[in-house]
Specification:
DNA-binding, homodimer
DNA sequence: TGAATAGTGTCTTTCAGACAATATTCT
DNA sequence: AGAATATTGTCTGAAAGACACTATTCA
């Protein structure tokens, strides 16, 4: 039997024992904290509970494209996404066996603010615990709390080696803002002069020559990620 | 409609647009180099070509268990596995849309040596290029070269923060062997006193009180991973 | 004793933390 | 001028690289 004959007699359905979804962890930085965008489920199972935006993977779309579609359809906005793992526990979902590929999506608060409503809420992240506006702990659907926890670990792990975390900031940002983001991600305060020197001399950012305005005090110089051309 | 009614009318097959496999990157350290265990494919597609050991995920097994089964059935040995990503390009496999969750498996050479044969070969890794015994470059099936490349990046990234890479060494090892492994993974030579101080003072390893034997020169003290109880 | 590698000491450089001084902008 | 924050300078200590020295085992 040659390869063409083999493929023509092949039945894909017989290998379809599990379904695949993508779940996205949409994060932003607002009022000095990392925050998670969660969407309320409108269908069973876990109807009414807050969950990560997610969707089934279609046969003709890559995982990255599925993640972007989940973000657009469920969270209502677009941004860059980054894969960080796959979750495949047996009872993750009561419907059937579902494996989920997990993505992070980072955006500035002004991108998210217009899409927020009662069914699409921003939760404060206190470590990996999600809290509502009143400070009460909010349980997430399925194993989504675990996925969020892993996302935060990965964000922390890659903070100094990838440019991904700059997604939490606008194209031009002050060193103070950047330091606040790093402090929120790492969960500890950092030394100011050391942080400045390290980041500027790393070559990862560069001054724009522009300064803050309307601050009531000395305006800071704004920086941008090197290699980004925000024309 | 309540949740029970919803679930009873649910058709899992309608969401089964893609299949899921696990592919394992089995690595070892031998003769001062990182080496990859590849298995020859006995069926279409890509029959006869070397590939990573992999298998379809069954409905009743977790991803970790699938990885261990792939390793046992295809590579012929058991060891610890570690997930590092998911690969979902559209034309990865000519049969159908397949998403693969990728794992690494690290073992000492003496565990692998007994299972090697003409269809289960050890390839030298030169950067992320696989080479046969004669030094010729060996193409891997599907997108497996890309998966191996990612595995090596991840191994390098996590070298100093996780204990996983100790899987390439026996339970008791000399600092020289450990340094050789680190040098092979990082692809650069390291300073001996600095390496010693850093590793010993990191608290990640501890002396066993036992020394090498039969070396023809001064025997080195053997160390073990702290927290491991190799009784 | 010689060969070979183990293990250590020292100097230097680099980098981060602590702390404080100076600079700039707005009210 | 005063408030508030930006930005920089200096000191100090920790850690890594370079290099060479001493130690130990076996043949």
């Amino acid at each position: 039997m040659n390869e063409a004959e083999f493929l023509s007699g092949y039945d894909p359905a017989s290998f379809c024992a599990v379904a695949v979804t993508v779940d996205v962890v949409p994060l932003t930085f607002h009022e000095n904290r990392l925050r998670l965008l969660a969407v309320r489920r409108t269908t069973h199972p876990e109807r009414g509970r807050l969950a990560l935006p997610g969707t089934f993977v279609r046969a003709d779309e890559t995982l990255d494209v599925t993640a972007q579609r989940a973000l657009r359809e469920k969270a209502g906005f677009d941004t860059q996404v980054e894969q960080f793992g796959a979750f495949g526990a047996l009872k993750r979902d009561p419907r059937m066996r579902i494996i989920s590929v997990a993505y992070m999506a980072l955006a500035t608060f002004d991108r998210l603010e217009p899409v927020l409503n009662d069914d699409r809420m921003l939760l404060a992240l206190d470590g990996s615990v999600a809290r509502g506006a009143n400070g009460r702990k909010i349980p997430l659907a399925f194993d989504h709390a675990e996925i969020v926890g892993t996302a935060l670990s990965v964000l922390r792990r890659d903070l100094d080696s990838t440019a991904f975390s700059f997604g939490l900031l606008p194209p031009a940002f002050s060193l103070r803002e950047l330091q606040q983001v790093h402090e929120a991600i790492r969960g500890q305060s950092l030394n100011k002069p050391a942080f400045r020197k390290r980041l500027v001399e790393s070559g990862r950012i560069e001054p724009t020559g522009i300064r803050e305005t309307d601050k009531g005090y000395r305006p800071a110089e704004l920086y941008r990620v090197r290699g980004t051309d925000n024309a």
